[in-house]
Amino acid sequence: MFYLFPLLTVLIWSGNSIVNKLAFSVIDPGAIAFYRWFFAIAVLTPFMLRSVWRARAMIRPYINKLFFLALLGMVLNQSLGYFAAATTTATNMALIVSLVPLISMFMSVPLLGKRMQGIAVVGAILSLSGLVLMLSHGDIRNLASQGITQGDGFILIAAFVYALYCVLLKRWKMPLSNWQSVYMQGLFATLILLPMLLTSERAAITSESLPLILYAAIPASVIAPWCWLKGIDILGADRTAMFMNLMPMMTALIASVFLGEQLAVYHYIGGLMVLVGVVLAQRKPKLTIANDHGLLHEVKPSL
Questions:
Q1: Tens digit of each residue's pLDDT (9 = 90 or more) over 24-69
Q2: pTM of the entire predicted model
Q3: How many Cβ atoms sit within 10 Å of the Cβ of residue 57?
Q4: Which helix (H) or strand (E) holds 296?
Q5: I need a surface site. Which of 135, 217, 255, 297 has the fewest CB within 10 A?
Q6: Is the alpha carbon torsion for 80, 159, 95, 223 positive or negative?
Protein backbone atom coordinates (compact mmCIF):
# COMPACT_ATOMS: atom_id res chain seq x y z
CA MET A 1 0.00 0.00 0.00
CA PHE A 2 2.91 2.37 0.71
CA TYR A 3 3.87 2.35 -2.97
CA LEU A 4 0.45 3.73 -3.91
CA PHE A 5 1.50 7.22 -2.80
CA PRO A 6 4.35 7.72 -5.34
CA LEU A 7 2.47 5.72 -7.98
CA LEU A 8 -0.59 7.97 -7.66
CA THR A 9 1.67 11.03 -7.82
CA VAL A 10 3.31 9.88 -11.05
CA LEU A 11 -0.07 8.97 -12.55
CA ILE A 12 -1.49 12.43 -11.76
CA TRP A 13 1.56 14.24 -13.15
CA SER A 14 1.47 12.06 -16.27
CA GLY A 15 -2.12 13.14 -16.77
CA ASN A 16 -1.06 16.75 -16.40
CA SER A 17 1.00 16.43 -19.60
CA ILE A 18 -2.25 15.54 -21.36
CA VAL A 19 -3.91 18.57 -19.76
CA ASN A 20 -1.14 20.77 -21.17
CA LYS A 21 -1.91 19.54 -24.69
CA LEU A 22 -5.69 19.87 -24.34
CA ALA A 23 -5.49 23.28 -22.70
CA PHE A 24 -3.63 24.98 -25.53
CA SER A 25 -6.66 24.84 -27.82
CA VAL A 26 -9.12 26.34 -25.31
CA ILE A 27 -7.20 28.80 -23.10
CA ASP A 28 -4.03 30.87 -23.33
CA PRO A 29 -0.94 29.48 -21.55
CA GLY A 30 -0.58 32.56 -19.36
CA ALA A 31 -4.18 32.32 -18.22
CA ILE A 32 -4.15 28.66 -17.19
CA ALA A 33 -0.77 29.14 -15.49
CA PHE A 34 -2.37 31.88 -13.33
CA TYR A 35 -5.62 30.02 -12.64
CA ARG A 36 -3.68 26.89 -11.67
CA TRP A 37 -2.02 28.59 -8.70
CA PHE A 38 -4.93 30.90 -7.91
CA PHE A 39 -7.24 27.93 -7.29
CA ALA A 40 -4.50 25.84 -5.64
CA ILE A 41 -3.86 28.65 -3.15
CA ALA A 42 -7.61 29.01 -2.60
CA VAL A 43 -7.78 25.33 -1.63
CA LEU A 44 -4.67 25.49 0.58
CA THR A 45 -5.51 28.75 2.39
CA PRO A 46 -7.96 27.30 4.97
CA PHE A 47 -5.31 24.76 5.97
CA MET A 48 -2.17 26.92 5.72
CA LEU A 49 -3.03 30.53 6.53
CA ARG A 50 -2.83 30.18 10.31
CA SER A 51 0.45 28.23 10.12
CA VAL A 52 2.04 30.76 7.78
CA TRP A 53 0.83 33.73 9.84
CA ARG A 54 2.29 32.27 13.02
CA ALA A 55 5.60 31.65 11.24
CA ARG A 56 5.73 35.08 9.57
CA ALA A 57 8.77 36.22 11.55
CA MET A 58 10.64 33.07 10.54
CA ILE A 59 9.52 33.38 6.89
CA ARG A 60 10.39 37.08 6.49
CA PRO A 61 14.20 36.66 6.03
CA TYR A 62 13.59 34.17 3.21
CA ILE A 63 11.10 36.21 1.19
CA ASN A 64 13.56 36.95 -1.65
CA LYS A 65 14.57 33.32 -1.96
CA LEU A 66 10.96 32.12 -1.92
CA PHE A 67 10.11 34.68 -4.60
CA PHE A 68 12.97 33.48 -6.83
CA LEU A 69 12.01 29.83 -6.29
CA ALA A 70 8.42 30.65 -7.27
CA LEU A 71 9.68 32.37 -10.41
CA LEU A 72 11.68 29.29 -11.39
CA GLY A 73 9.51 26.35 -10.36
CA MET A 74 5.97 27.66 -10.59
CA VAL A 75 6.13 30.38 -13.22
CA LEU A 76 8.87 29.70 -15.79
CA ASN A 77 8.85 25.91 -15.58
CA GLN A 78 5.09 25.48 -15.81
CA SER A 79 4.43 28.33 -18.24
CA LEU A 80 7.02 26.93 -20.65
CA GLY A 81 5.19 23.61 -20.49
CA TYR A 82 1.90 25.23 -21.52
CA PHE A 83 3.56 27.13 -24.39
CA ALA A 84 5.43 24.00 -25.52
CA ALA A 85 2.19 22.05 -25.91
CA ALA A 86 1.47 23.84 -29.20
CA THR A 87 4.39 22.28 -31.09
CA THR A 88 5.40 19.07 -29.32
CA THR A 89 3.78 15.89 -28.07
CA ALA A 90 2.89 14.90 -24.51
CA THR A 91 5.24 11.93 -24.87
CA ASN A 92 8.17 14.15 -25.85
CA MET A 93 7.44 16.46 -22.94
CA ALA A 94 7.51 13.59 -20.45
CA LEU A 95 10.71 12.09 -21.89
CA ILE A 96 12.55 15.42 -21.79
CA VAL A 97 11.33 16.19 -18.26
CA SER A 98 12.67 12.80 -17.15
CA LEU A 99 16.16 14.29 -17.61
CA VAL A 100 15.66 16.65 -14.65
CA PRO A 101 17.35 14.34 -12.07
CA LEU A 102 20.35 14.01 -14.38
CA ILE A 103 20.62 17.77 -14.98
CA SER A 104 20.28 18.33 -11.23
CA MET A 105 23.25 16.06 -10.59
CA PHE A 106 25.47 18.12 -12.89
CA MET A 107 24.25 21.39 -11.36
CA SER A 108 24.97 19.99 -7.89
CA VAL A 109 28.70 19.88 -8.64
CA PRO A 110 29.26 23.68 -8.66
CA LEU A 111 26.26 24.66 -6.49
CA LEU A 112 26.37 22.00 -3.78
CA GLY A 113 30.00 20.91 -4.01
CA LYS A 114 29.09 17.31 -4.84
CA ARG A 115 31.35 14.97 -6.77
CA MET A 116 30.23 13.42 -10.04
CA GLN A 117 30.62 9.64 -10.12
CA GLY A 118 31.86 7.87 -13.26
CA ILE A 119 28.61 5.91 -13.58
CA ALA A 120 26.71 9.21 -13.65
CA VAL A 121 28.80 10.39 -16.63
CA VAL A 122 28.05 7.13 -18.45
CA GLY A 123 24.35 7.57 -17.68
CA ALA A 124 24.46 11.16 -18.92
CA ILE A 125 26.02 10.16 -22.24
CA LEU A 126 23.46 7.39 -22.72
CA SER A 127 20.52 9.66 -21.86
CA LEU A 128 21.69 12.49 -24.10
CA SER A 129 22.21 10.03 -26.96
CA GLY A 130 18.66 8.77 -26.49
CA LEU A 131 17.35 12.34 -26.41
CA VAL A 132 19.16 13.21 -29.65
CA LEU A 133 17.76 10.06 -31.29
CA MET A 134 14.24 10.97 -30.23
CA LEU A 135 14.40 14.66 -31.15
CA SER A 136 15.92 13.85 -34.55
CA HIS A 137 13.11 11.36 -35.27
CA GLY A 138 15.61 8.55 -35.64
CA ASP A 139 17.93 10.33 -38.08
CA ILE A 140 20.51 12.76 -36.72
CA ARG A 141 20.63 14.47 -40.13
CA ASN A 142 17.15 15.82 -39.41
CA LEU A 143 18.45 17.50 -36.28
CA ALA A 144 21.37 19.03 -38.17
CA SER A 145 19.22 20.34 -41.03
CA GLN A 146 15.95 21.25 -39.30
CA GLY A 147 16.81 21.63 -35.61
CA ILE A 148 14.27 20.76 -32.93
CA THR A 149 10.71 21.97 -32.66
CA GLN A 150 9.98 25.10 -30.65
CA GLY A 151 8.02 23.04 -28.16
CA ASP A 152 10.89 20.62 -27.55
CA GLY A 153 13.16 23.62 -27.04
CA PHE A 154 10.77 25.14 -24.49
CA ILE A 155 10.60 21.86 -22.56
CA LEU A 156 14.40 21.54 -22.57
CA ILE A 157 14.64 25.04 -21.07
CA ALA A 158 11.93 24.11 -18.55
CA ALA A 159 13.90 21.00 -17.56
CA PHE A 160 17.01 23.09 -16.85
CA VAL A 161 14.93 25.67 -14.95
CA TYR A 162 13.31 23.02 -12.78
CA ALA A 163 16.63 21.27 -12.16
CA LEU A 164 18.03 24.58 -10.91
CA TYR A 165 14.94 24.98 -8.72
CA CYS A 166 15.52 21.55 -7.15
CA VAL A 167 19.21 22.25 -6.49
CA LEU A 168 18.52 25.67 -4.97
CA LEU A 169 15.96 24.12 -2.63
CA LYS A 170 18.79 21.98 -1.25
CA ARG A 171 21.29 24.83 -1.22
CA TRP A 172 18.92 27.23 0.55
CA LYS A 173 17.85 25.10 3.46
CA MET A 174 15.05 27.10 5.03
CA PRO A 175 13.51 26.35 8.45
CA LEU A 176 10.03 26.05 6.91
CA SER A 177 7.79 23.07 6.48
CA ASN A 178 7.31 21.79 2.92
CA TRP A 179 3.76 23.10 2.83
CA GLN A 180 4.70 26.52 4.19
CA SER A 181 7.30 26.80 1.44
CA VAL A 182 4.86 25.64 -1.26
CA TYR A 183 2.15 28.00 -0.02
CA MET A 184 4.41 31.06 -0.03
CA GLN A 185 5.78 30.18 -3.46
CA GLY A 186 2.23 29.72 -4.74
CA LEU A 187 1.27 33.17 -3.47
CA PHE A 188 4.24 34.76 -5.23
CA ALA A 189 3.56 32.75 -8.40
CA THR A 190 -0.02 34.06 -8.50
CA LEU A 191 1.22 37.66 -8.25
CA ILE A 192 3.92 37.15 -10.90
CA LEU A 193 1.45 35.49 -13.30
CA LEU A 194 -1.26 38.15 -12.94
CA PRO A 195 0.13 40.33 -15.81
CA MET A 196 0.10 37.25 -18.07
CA LEU A 197 -3.57 36.71 -17.26
CA LEU A 198 -4.44 40.34 -17.95
CA THR A 199 -2.69 40.29 -21.34
CA SER A 200 -4.15 36.94 -22.46
CA GLU A 201 -6.69 36.98 -25.28
CA ARG A 202 -8.39 33.76 -24.18
CA ALA A 203 -8.53 34.32 -20.42
CA ALA A 204 -12.18 33.50 -19.72
CA ILE A 205 -12.99 30.29 -17.86
CA THR A 206 -15.28 28.24 -20.09
CA SER A 207 -16.97 24.86 -19.77
CA GLU A 208 -14.10 23.40 -21.82
CA SER A 209 -11.26 24.97 -19.87
CA LEU A 210 -12.68 24.62 -16.33
CA PRO A 211 -12.03 20.85 -15.92
CA LEU A 212 -8.46 21.33 -17.21
CA ILE A 213 -7.84 24.24 -14.83
CA LEU A 214 -9.22 22.32 -11.85
CA TYR A 215 -7.11 19.24 -12.69
CA ALA A 216 -3.95 21.35 -12.87
CA ALA A 217 -4.87 23.24 -9.67
CA ILE A 218 -6.05 20.48 -7.34
CA PRO A 219 -4.81 16.98 -8.30
CA ALA A 220 -1.57 18.17 -9.94
CA SER A 221 -0.70 20.99 -7.52
CA VAL A 222 -2.18 19.84 -4.19
CA ILE A 223 -2.99 16.11 -4.09
CA ALA A 224 0.07 14.91 -6.03
CA PRO A 225 2.60 16.87 -3.90
CA TRP A 226 0.89 15.60 -0.73
CA CYS A 227 1.14 11.98 -1.95
CA TRP A 228 4.76 12.57 -2.97
CA LEU A 229 5.71 13.91 0.46
CA LYS A 230 3.90 10.97 2.12
CA GLY A 231 5.89 8.61 -0.10
CA ILE A 232 9.15 10.27 0.94
CA ASP A 233 8.17 10.03 4.62
CA ILE A 234 7.39 6.32 4.32
CA LEU A 235 9.81 5.03 1.68
CA GLY A 236 12.64 7.58 1.76
CA ALA A 237 13.65 10.16 -0.86
CA ASP A 238 15.82 7.87 -3.01
CA ARG A 239 13.31 5.05 -3.33
CA THR A 240 10.47 7.47 -4.00
CA ALA A 241 12.46 9.35 -6.66
CA MET A 242 12.85 6.16 -8.69
CA PHE A 243 9.11 6.19 -9.41
CA MET A 244 9.60 9.31 -11.56
CA ASN A 245 11.18 7.04 -14.16
CA LEU A 246 7.71 5.57 -14.77
CA MET A 247 6.26 8.92 -15.88
CA PRO A 248 7.29 8.81 -19.58
CA MET A 249 5.79 5.33 -19.98
CA MET A 250 2.55 6.32 -18.22
CA THR A 251 2.32 9.55 -20.22
CA ALA A 252 2.85 7.72 -23.51
CA LEU A 253 0.09 5.22 -22.67
CA ILE A 254 -2.38 7.94 -21.62
CA ALA A 255 -1.49 10.09 -24.66
CA SER A 256 -2.07 7.18 -27.03
CA VAL A 257 -5.58 6.73 -25.61
CA PHE A 258 -6.74 10.33 -25.14
CA LEU A 259 -4.69 12.17 -27.79
CA GLY A 260 -4.14 9.46 -30.37
CA GLU A 261 -0.35 9.96 -30.26
CA GLN A 262 1.48 7.22 -32.12
CA LEU A 263 4.85 5.99 -30.92
CA ALA A 264 7.55 5.32 -33.53
CA VAL A 265 10.48 2.93 -33.13
CA TYR A 266 12.80 5.84 -32.29
CA HIS A 267 10.52 6.75 -29.36
CA TYR A 268 10.93 3.29 -27.86
CA ILE A 269 14.71 3.13 -28.41
CA GLY A 270 15.44 6.74 -27.49
CA GLY A 271 13.08 6.69 -24.52
CA LEU A 272 14.64 3.49 -23.19
CA MET A 273 18.12 4.98 -23.54
CA VAL A 274 17.02 8.10 -21.63
CA LEU A 275 15.46 6.11 -18.79
CA VAL A 276 18.33 3.62 -18.47
CA GLY A 277 20.78 6.53 -18.44
CA VAL A 278 18.87 8.30 -15.68
CA VAL A 279 18.68 5.10 -13.61
CA LEU A 280 22.44 4.56 -14.02
CA ALA A 281 23.14 8.13 -12.97
CA GLN A 282 21.00 7.68 -9.85
CA ARG A 283 22.84 4.56 -8.70
CA LYS A 284 24.68 4.98 -5.44
CA PRO A 285 28.39 4.00 -5.37
CA LYS A 286 29.44 0.93 -3.43
CA LEU A 287 31.13 1.61 -0.10
CA THR A 288 34.21 -0.31 0.97
CA ILE A 289 34.11 -1.10 4.69
CA ALA A 290 35.88 -3.43 7.08
CA ASN A 291 34.10 -6.36 8.72
CA ASP A 292 34.71 -7.75 12.21
CA HIS A 293 37.83 -9.56 10.96
CA GLY A 294 39.35 -6.47 9.39
CA LEU A 295 38.64 -7.71 5.85
CA LEU A 296 37.40 -5.21 3.29
CA HIS A 297 34.17 -5.85 1.43
CA GLU A 298 31.79 -3.77 -0.65
CA VAL A 299 28.33 -2.76 0.43
CA LYS A 300 25.78 -1.13 -1.83
CA PRO A 301 23.67 1.39 0.10
CA SER A 302 20.01 0.41 0.15
CA LEU A 303 17.61 2.70 -1.66
A1: 999 999 999 999 999 999 999 999 999 999 999 999 999 999 999 9
A2: 0.85
A3: 7
A4: strand 296-299
A5: 297
A6: negative
